[in-house]
Q: What sequence folds into this?
């Protein structure tokens, strides 16, 4: 098998070292060094796919990611070098519709094993998830702007934020690894079982933690938490879906202020990879608190946790506090 290592920036090396991802290299390996390795080489499109590949592959895989730590994955543009290196991998793991540049590169690539996480569980349309609370127009605009091509309404890709659906994807990834690299199939199965237990424990913690709360409504910058809200009986209200960096209109702020009073909302959530300006504007005007709810699109030194499970546990604590868990 051919393993190619990608040149990554200093910040990515630091993050990789902190996460114990010793297989990543700060420099571009020469072809002879790459040819000497016998690992199963997986290119992951962004962090939630990278995490699955690392957890399931264990010692048998060399995982590189197309989206560096701190980079907003939706807007990713690939370099010619990244596209070329993808073609040299043994497998590519991605989530179709989240990153159009990646979808295009993979469609043109001759990678033998292409694993689309979107086919391994059922994606849903959360475009009008907020319709009971007057936010349908904003959510729909966001969904169409961010995830649809040619103006069509698309399914919500943020499926990794539901531990149950993420576990379904993990199971499919393990099967694909077993088929592509049968020599290590038993280890992939064993690792996938260990990951399923972690994700099952996480699901239980969310169910228990959010079962009895003062309110079920939460405000967020980015309409990323539709699956999580649906799984645990919550309602996500996106402040300004169309552009997370811009400020909401005075009419939208007034609408959200009224809803905050009606539904007992205490907190406006923002995330690590985009500006907190919008959330702070609304919080100040509505007399609410702010906190981080991380959509886990990338891990950085600002992340409240070292990996997927750690950040999801931190998200649960933030939600318990904001929703008034009893």
A:
């Amino acid at each position: 098998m051919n393993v190619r290592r990608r040149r990554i920036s200093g910040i990515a090396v630091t993050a990789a070292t902190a996460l114990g991802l010793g297989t990543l290299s700060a420099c571009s390996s020469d072809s002879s060094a790459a040819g000497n390795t016998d690992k199963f080489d997986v290119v992951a499109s962004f962090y939630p796919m990278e995490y699955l590949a690392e957890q399931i592959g264990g010692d048998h895989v060399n995982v590189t990611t197309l989206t560096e730590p701190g980079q907003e994955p939706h807007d990713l543009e690939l370099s010619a070098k990244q596209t070329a290196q993808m073609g040299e991998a043994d497998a590519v793991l991605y989530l179709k519709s989240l990153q159009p540049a990646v979808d295009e590169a993979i469609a043109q690539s001759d990678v033998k094993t292409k694993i689309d996480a979107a086919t391994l569980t059922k994606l849903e349309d959360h475009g009008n998830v907020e319709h009971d609370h007057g936010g349908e127009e904003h959510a729909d605009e966001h969904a169409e702007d961010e995830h649809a091509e040619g103006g069509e309404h698309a399914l919500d890709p943020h499926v990794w934020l539901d531990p149950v659906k993420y576990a379904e994807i993990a199971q499919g990834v393990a099967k694909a690894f077993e088929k592509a690299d049968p020599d290590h199939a038993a280890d992939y199965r064993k690792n996938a079982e260990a990951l399923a237990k972690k994700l099952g424990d996480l699901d239980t913690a969310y169910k228990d933690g959010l079962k009895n709360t003062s309110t079920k409504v939460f405000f967020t910058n980015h309409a990323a938490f539709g699956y999580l809200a649906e799984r645990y009986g919550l309602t996500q209200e996106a402040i300004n879906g169309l552009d997370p960096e811009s400020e909401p209109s005075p009419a939208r702020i007034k609408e959200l202020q009224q809803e905050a009073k009606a539904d007992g909302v205490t907190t406006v959530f923002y995330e690590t990879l985009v500006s907190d300006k919008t959330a702070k504007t609304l919080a100040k005007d509505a007399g609410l608190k702010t906190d981080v709810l991380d959509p886990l699109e990338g891990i950085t030194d600002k992340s409240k946790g070292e990996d997927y499970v750690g950040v999801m546990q931190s998200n649960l604590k933030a939600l318990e506090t904001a929703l008034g868990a009893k």
